[in-house]
## 1
Amino acid sequence: MKRNIKVERLNQRPIELQEIELVERKGIGHPDSVADGLAESISRALCQEYLKRFGAVLHHNTDKTQIVAGRSNPSFGGGEVICPIYILLTGRATRIFKGEEIPVDTIAIRAARRLLEESLSNLDINHHTIIDAKIGMGSSDLRDVFGRKVPSANDTSFGVGYAPLSETEQIVYNTERELLKLKKKIPAIGEDTKVMGMRERDSINLTIACAMIDKYVSSIEDYVQLKEDIVQHIAEYTSQFTSRKIKAQINVADDIEKGSVYLTVTGTSAEMGDDGAVGRGNRTNGLITPGRPMSLEATSGKNPINHVGKIYNLLAMVASKKIAEEIDSIEEVYIRILSQIGRPIDEPHMAGIQVVLKEGADMVKVQTEAEELMNDWLENISQIQEMIFRGELNTY
Amino acid sequence: MKRNIKVERLNQRPIELQEIELVERKGIGHPDSVADGLAESISRALCQEYLKRFGAVLHHNTDKTQIVAGRSNPSFGGGEVICPIYILLTGRATRIFKGEEIPVDTIAIRAARRLLEESLSNLDINHHTIIDAKIGMGSSDLRDVFGRKVPSANDTSFGVGYAPLSETEQIVYNTERELLKLKKKIPAIGEDTKVMGMRERDSINLTIACAMIDKYVSSIEDYVQLKEDIVQHIAEYTSQFTSRKIKAQINVADDIEKGSVYLTVTGTSAEMGDDGAVGRGNRTNGLITPGRPMSLEATSGKNPINHVGKIYNLLAMVASKKIAEEIDSIEEVYIRILSQIGRPIDEPHMAGIQVVLKEGADMVKVQTEAEELMNDWLENISQIQEMIFRGELNTY
Amino acid sequence: MKRNIKVERLNQRPIELQEIELVERKGIGHPDSVADGLAESISRALCQEYLKRFGAVLHHNTDKTQIVAGRSNPSFGGGEVICPIYILLTGRATRIFKGEEIPVDTIAIRAARRLLEESLSNLDINHHTIIDAKIGMGSSDLRDVFGRKVPSANDTSFGVGYAPLSETEQIVYNTERELLKLKKKIPAIGEDTKVMGMRERDSINLTIACAMIDKYVSSIEDYVQLKEDIVQHIAEYTSQFTSRKIKAQINVADDIEKGSVYLTVTGTSAEMGDDGAVGRGNRTNGLITPGRPMSLEATSGKNPINHVGKIYNLLAMVASKKIAEEIDSIEEVYIRILSQIGRPIDEPHMAGIQVVLKEGADMVKVQTEAEELMNDWLENISQIQEMIFRGELNTY
Amino acid sequence: MKRNIKVERLNQRPIELQEIELVERKGIGHPDSVADGLAESISRALCQEYLKRFGAVLHHNTDKTQIVAGRSNPSFGGGEVICPIYILLTGRATRIFKGEEIPVDTIAIRAARRLLEESLSNLDINHHTIIDAKIGMGSSDLRDVFGRKVPSANDTSFGVGYAPLSETEQIVYNTERELLKLKKKIPAIGEDTKVMGMRERDSINLTIACAMIDKYVSSIEDYVQLKEDIVQHIAEYTSQFTSRKIKAQINVADDIEKGSVYLTVTGTSAEMGDDGAVGRGNRTNGLITPGRPMSLEATSGKNPINHVGKIYNLLAMVASKKIAEEIDSIEEVYIRILSQIGRPIDEPHMAGIQVVLKEGADMVKVQTEAEELMNDWLENISQIQEMIFRGELNTY
């Protein structure tokens, strides 16, 4: 089979040489991330249940989870949640197959509780959340699709990916990871963080928002001290990634004199005012990068069988990484894959690869190698699906 | 005041010279667009009510509208809606001010009904929709913000914009507009359309999805004929914008022999299986463009006073247009504006302008002029706010 | 067939000779009555649709409608509704039959809107209510039942009825009816009324609660005058039914000096604080009578095919009326009918008739006649079902 | 103070001498009972919290809890719940007092979980229920009421009570209690039971519905055997209460041959098709008795301060018991208490006491004693309120 793969040379100044870069990452306890996490964990749980019962994944898309903020009264030493966080698990899934009913809602609730435990360790799930489940049934046309051997694309849409990550991107990503580790020493750190990185030439500004947990903070003085500890730790930690100048700040909107600080009972702003939705947060590489190609598609919660909005975004990310790693002379690679509704997913309408080359690179050779690598991935697209089942690919 | 505005030259191949381009537009009746439209129309109605009652816009963000698909049974000549479309108007708004209660829900419902009438002319709002309103109150900290003269940014986030539109972008955008006009002659055209444009070098492929309205289609033959009429019309219409080769297709997933076609009762896929959410569809320029800088921020429904996620995205779009128009030697311009929570919105953390220049351009002159134009817009940022109140800026 | 019908003589002082009597009627716009009305009108609409499509009534019970109060700001001359009244149409109904889908929700919403128009003429349905529909599917076991010739009882439960109405009962019932007529002259009268009658020997006290409609009341003085007009009218009107002394009062909780009066925008207290539920209001004779046998069963919204909670209550009411009318020597008659789940509905577990006789009556004759009349009704129980379909039997 | 207390002699055949009697009790796991239990336990928890924080009970009414049935797939040895039971905790409560916010929803959820544990021991609350809380705020007028010394009646309504219980009533009541005890030996007995007693002269028919729990039943043969064991036990147990003939039956709608039996996963029919609502089940004496005076008022969940619908029903029950116990010559006593909105609750509009006397009784003496006892209760009405706070009075 001849696939429509295009490799194009891009005469573009590499990201590190551009003057300005903006990068953001929402932590795993951010309401949008939690929504993504719930959606994806439910899809994964359904996949496993379908496989166990029927040997095949049945149609579902659970990508509409909503988190409606609660109301809380945090206070140093420990406050209280006034109104619980309302979590609506929704979407569509096959509920009956070959006469057997699948307990879709029960599975979803079980998966949701587990995800919440992992993502928000200080949340009292039983009393501070309402977990509602309203998962409907899909349209019959779509359900047909799954009978075919290689599934057909469910829609006309596209996926994008690029590699490698820039220095600033790595720093932003790793800062969030490091805060989670630091939490073991400083339990006041909530999982709801947001790291915004701005690079101007060789100066990187990190603005961190971190929901502090009230029961681990005894006073305003304690709070101020903890902020300093965190900032200092992050400044030291991030210096390993760059020779650029880094300036880190945390909870910049605090007004210490007025006592207006970023304090929470549960470690997430969802307890007070901040809603969350699927697909509003990090892309599949864990980042939001307005200066790089991005897809708007919500990948979390979509079925990994025929939903090209999910499959092609993950494929583009994975393939771009591989290509950047394996082809030495590539400086940067950008991939876009376009589907057309009804076509087998291993034959995209078009797969476009743009490469920024290092000096002296042989474009003809790069072209051949990149095309081949891409073709391999498409040939074995079921690998991507299996990586999703096994939870090996992050979606946020 | 000295604002942090950076102008940078970008050595990048202009979009028209790149080999591949992907562009998408969701029509005004697409579930995601309807969600955006509802969110924005409610915010606008609230702004007007607040201004009328108190002479000032009060805090609100109504950017969480959800559309949960119904269930229908379309059939040639006219079918029926089985389960109505559930529309949840949600978000937060000031409900009491100076002892006066504002009928927030009633205002929201009124605005929503009007938007639905405009966007989905064949929808029987009374019987085919459930309009639910659950608009809460915001957190008090945020409400304080509005007392200050120039409002402070509500968050650390960014806006992006670029200009001018490429040929393919114009074609995709205008195709959707033209379908709405064509609807007057061919009433079977539903407002829920999706236009996907892919350009490979000098060949443009338009894939249109269009929800056809059953009562205006008498039979499968009629349906096939209407599709041909539409495709032919669009092919002729779009040829004015380009000398490139255009190929248009419509409803490519149809299986005419099996009678499986894209037929609806109401003109929107929300009647059957397709949910909608705010911020999942078109960006402020009306397009989704993975090869161009994009913000993930949902702009619709956010308050135009201090929500930088809205203001900076609209500002970046408007300013980039102006800069591209007024500075002759600019081929392409890309703008990114970053806020920091708590800073006045007219003093962004950074405003970055990247320019691709025409041959022979004087970068120093461009730099001065672009900076000046940007500075003017920031100086007069209340203009953007007023344009939003008056509904002069589209958000989707 | 020999049915288990028992006739028993009751040596009891007739109600008119008892010293104290308590009687209540909730008007058609009272939140509980509106809930009953919605439930019943939806059931009736479904019956008609099922009959039209399939020639038979299919399983359904729509007896769970909920009315959640809104929030309003009434004021003389016309106030506003702040939060709409939330109306949840719920229950269960057959949604698919012989492969055909029935648009259950659409039918329910249509019926609900019509009932609201009839019951609350000043309610702006489009803007002051949220009509939500969540009608599920019944259990399959119950659905089977409908195939049999004479349906089997869906449950073990009972119905009760009595006749004739006492003087006080008639007065309370008719007072509510008269207020609706008076509304044509005094449009300020809302349909949400509650009439409480207490008789102590020969003195009857009528306490009326009436939601006044603000746009038809110009001032507090106007309000006071209207109350006087209404009370005077009712005093005159009710005197026709009795030679006893009647004292009528209206809106006794008003505090005129403080301006705290019973004013509404829409004519129902559901706009502000008062929820409504099915089965909480009037019994099938239109009254609440704690001194008389009553069933707790909600009759509104239940299916008229096999739901004995509905059928037996209506049958007991109708049969007791007939028996009281046709058998001269009966002073009072009380009927109780008990079903057993699974038995044909025309063969109740027991039908008990208690009679209070006039002096000189022949109990043996009464026994024979009453048993015969009861037997006839059971023999022709489908008549009751048809009267329900045709809307000839009130349930509240 | 002279209260309006009337004592009247009733020349009525005592219940035991009437030919027919109908009595019903819904078990504590019946959906209607669970709804009552939830409503009441939430009110009690709020009372305690208000008392602890402010030394006074604040306004609330949590009498609108809804239980929407789930969907299950029971099977011998253990089946599964497909859709969870949806439980909506609703009503109104004071959420802010003297500037302090009360975590009303959190309290309600905590109380609800405890009640479910107590009432349905085999229900997996975390995975088989959705506990939603939407508790609003009351109207301000009502909130004022609580400032006065003796609260004023919130409405014009009435309470009723009678004593003593008849033999059949005792049997029905105790049968349900005994089933709960028997559950320790026969764990297959679910808490969702319904006991219907019909007495015809000297023959009592008990029809029991009992939700059997699938994991404790290995097969259809086991099921049949368990039913026999239960029936035999109940037959023996009930014989202590009467010399009349008792016939007990259980799950009469079972069709053993078809395998259609009353099996559940959780021990309640709420898992499959049976909804529950407050105020639809047992009266304050734990029974439904159509041949006795009954109030339709839902007592569970109402505030014990000024809600006469609750207070007067409990008072009428308690006072009638006391009067029947203390005044020897009374055979039966019936009490009705009527409030008028705005009057202090210790001064009802009227308290009517009807007595059926034993032969040779002295009516004048009875009249004096009964009036005195009633007057004492009204004088010390706060006792009733305290008994409610302490959970000493059952409401269902």
## 2
Amino acid sequence: MANENVVDNKKTSEEFRKNLIAFMQQKGFVWGPSPEIYGGISGFYTYAPLGKLLKNNVENSIRKIFQKQDFWEVECPTVLPKIVWEASGHLGGFTDPVIKCSKCKSTFRADKLIEEKYFELGEEGKTAPIENDKMLTVMSELGIKCPSCKSEFEQEIKSHNLMMKTTIGLDTEAYNRPETATTTYLPFPRYVEFFRSKLPFGVFQIGKAYRNEISPRQHLLRCREFTQAEGQFFIFEADKKEYPAFDKVKDKVLPFWTYTAQNEETGVEHITLEAAYEKGYLKNRAYASCVALAYNLFESFGIPVENMRLRQHDLDERAFYADDAWDLEVKLNAFGWTECCGVHDRTTYDLDQHAKFSKKELIARTPENKKEVPHVIEIAFGTDRPVFALLDIFFEKKDKDQGKTIFKIPYHMAPVKVAVFPLMKKAGMPELAREIYEDLSEKYIAVYDQAGPIGKRYLRVSEQGVPYSVTIDFDAVEKGICTIRDRDTEKQAKIKVDEIEITLDKLFRNKIKFDDLDVIEN
Amino acid sequence: MANENVVDNKKTSEEFRKNLIAFMQQKGFVWGPSPEIYGGISGFYTYAPLGKLLKNNVENSIRKIFQKQDFWEVECPTVLPKIVWEASGHLGGFTDPVIKCSKCKSTFRADKLIEEKYFELGEEGKTAPIENDKMLTVMSELGIKCPSCKSEFEQEIKSHNLMMKTTIGLDTEAYNRPETATTTYLPFPRYVEFFRSKLPFGVFQIGKAYRNEISPRQHLLRCREFTQAEGQFFIFEADKKEYPAFDKVKDKVLPFWTYTAQNEETGVEHITLEAAYEKGYLKNRAYASCVALAYNLFESFGIPVENMRLRQHDLDERAFYADDAWDLEVKLNAFGWTECCGVHDRTTYDLDQHAKFSKKELIARTPENKKEVPHVIEIAFGTDRPVFALLDIFFEKKDKDQGKTIFKIPYHMAPVKVAVFPLMKKAGMPELAREIYEDLSEKYIAVYDQAGPIGKRYLRVSEQGVPYSVTIDFDAVEKGICTIRDRDTEKQAKIKVDEIEITLDKLFRNKIKFDDLDVIEN
């Protein structure tokens, strides 16, 4: 499934990154930094047509998985007044450690410089210390210099607030939200009403968030404007341990990497969720079920299982309110193991804070009619990283003598599902092909292309990840028989023109295999 | 189709608005102004679970219609640096006329106060003058006073800029975008590459925009944060007149209300697009096709045709660069005829401006290989207004003696598609109903409900607009036969438990009618 590119060292991954980003730009997946005609600003990107289709597929997968688990989607404002961010703690403590070059005065995130250095040294996944003075020591030990001009850094790390400030009305101080989570908690009394006081319940939100990062340099992985997708599961504390829906997922085998295993440098354990729970890796069945849900989401995007692991936060890595915390990490060719989702038991922290600041009672009633603040388990991720991961994992750059560059995205996630080509621009082929294209467009994202030699057109759509191409030749016009081509095997088969749609439908739903068709033997 | 509520006067529409907004809040469609626990800020709303599903349906309709017309979706940043908005003209001229109460100092938009007064007087659709001094005169003629305290206004109208300012990095001045359009134009050189220099081409964007309105008071119709959906069609000037795809839509009958007809107070003409073109109502076939596309979008949302009209801008109403401009208006019970979409021929204005400010050549090459700046025809709308319109038009509040409140949303747009109820909480009914609910959830947005008498549960889902309810009784458990109920007719039919999904599929795709089922005669 995954491609053969493996990151061995800095050079390979830099080379890969360069190729990958050029591919994204040239083939119409991601453009930027945006706005390009004005020089571009770090951390802002544009989803080009194919990238946007891919992102929509990721977002629709999220909706489908959450909805099946009875989570309901909401959409909350992205701009909120100051008091909200005082309550959430973002105005006080939401800062990045910034260090400045003593010579060129460029600014960088100290923790990211350290982690990039670890990655180069083959110590993937090792994290920077949290305190500013410890970071300075580590930077000096590792001999980290300014990436721009190679000079020494100033011996000071400053805390830079990440919030983008704005104004509502004439003078109300407000901020572009730095996360969706806080905004999802605010309508809590409405949820209790909507769910008719029945807990547990889940809600989720997919939407923009903003962090004024200092010199973000990791493409879609670290943007100043990005799309988050976060599920919030509200449950009474007493119900967490025995949560019954756990039974549906308990036999699922997942790759657990506990903090003990990380410290003792033992590997990932592939065990069932139930075994992990019994061993005490996961504190309760409700939290364990949310970890399974997170994994399920990333599986649904088509991320290969061998590229995923669940990494437990060490005690000193957790937010002070977090009762348990695991990350889902995805192995990228361009950046190594990368955090793509976090599952956090936030307990009553957020509701308590907003109750305090808003002076409203944020409670639900237990079956015994007792007022209680429920716990919140959060599944926090975004959609930019999954899109980046899919491009990173399934892009295969080949040298000319080795074959063709191809985007081997799993078929169900392909941005464009089918291409229609007239073999030649004559004898009714373009007219018939156009008609078929228009019919297929009712159901699928399709492209029509009549320009250039057929081989070049096949190549072009392989680079775009299009699973199937339909070619309209003389036989199609005269006998109603056309050719369908499979992207990965490059096999071709003859099918009836009036069975194209049903054939595609069966192929996409795995009702038939390509080899079940009338394959042309070469 | 549409309900019987007709706006006769101020009182009726105020009463209707009150009921409609209460319905949206209580049933889980739209909450706000948000954040409610902190008192709420005008112009910010939260899409609650049912409202968000409805909004997703609207947005997916937009994608489907645009994609069928070969428009490609992009997603551009929502925060852009100052220079972009200098080029677009938003920093200079994007202002609202604001007037202040001489007593309570509340501020309002003068133009909106005038238009609200016209509406009360039965002069729907009449617009306020553009110049500040003329507005003052009209306000005085109409005797408009402060809506808050009924005092006189100060005799001055100030221009208030609508942009929400922020900062990127340490000190780059930037703004939350006030529209998607400008951001869609910026990657123009990339489009030319992506479409391999073949014009015309279309792109669209669905995303947030921000306008710091003064005291917005029209619920989702005028938000400070809102979702736009805008299509941009790039075409060489020489190709606009004979645009061949016009032939596919030319026989479509549309409701045209030219500015001449508005001034002469003659009515709307229902004529074909071709007739409208021949009469000179629409300047060219490319523009006419975009008007048809706009209408097609709103038809796809399920807005009844009798609630739509196309209103031409008068010459002095158009933006100075606009070569032609028509609005699609929707008749609302709460606010009368309301602009929901504008189709503007922006000519080369935007590309010229950004070429000038970015010092980049923004051109394409004609088939004769001549450099040329293409024209842009814009289809500008949003998704909040269609959601509001669907709720406004299909909500039927009934008094207790008149029957039941119902949300008669067209079935294809319903947020939740099916409800599953066990008749009683015993004899295996909840278990079977739950299993059916889980199966149906694979394909449809479904709800499960076992609380309360069955009649109350039917009522509850009718208020939510759920088209079909499936009830699991003794027969279902013992003989595999259950009951399906139609929302609008309240008819019930017997169907096999293992044919629920296929029956729903046929009903939603109009392959069968409800009466074709084994309907139970009362």
